[in-house]
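Hello again, I could really use a second opinion on something today. I've dropped the whole record in just underneath, so have a look.
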Amino acid sequence: MGHKIFVSYKYNDTNVENLSYLLGTTAVHDYVDYIQNRILNGDDIYKGEKSDEDISNWSDNAIWEHLKNKIYDSTLTIVLISPNMKEPRRWQTSQWIPWEISYSVKEMPRNGRTSQRNALLAVILPNRYGSYNYYDKNDLFPILRDNIDNGYTYVVKWDEFKKYPLTSIDKAYEHQENTSEYKIVKSL
């Protein structure tokens, strides 16, 4: 059975390792394309943004409604951790990734139906030098860090995810099923 997958990421972070098949500078959205085109199987449904979908000129409210519609009936949220995913000197409440995580782990009523909480899979991307040494869990958005600490979010490096994507996805669902509800951090 396929999964409905939403990917949360910093669109234009270019401080990531170049994907060998691309010419020019690689950005995080190129990793999203890789996931869509080379990892997801025929039964999976990608619910996230397309790399050529530019909504930057939309109002914040329009963007948020658009994102909520994509997240609402997804079952798994993959958070791509990249070196510049957090904008320095900006509150987490003014950045999209924490809101996407928060909405993903809430059970949301809509039109007489309630969404189920998504499994969370955090994938650490290599930096432009192919290293993961920038990664420090304590430097993540608090909602992501706390859901890693409480065991809800499964964390994997890109190299492992790329080799064994189904194992990583299955582990995220196992974490979802085996974590007591009271431990999950849902609010920013």
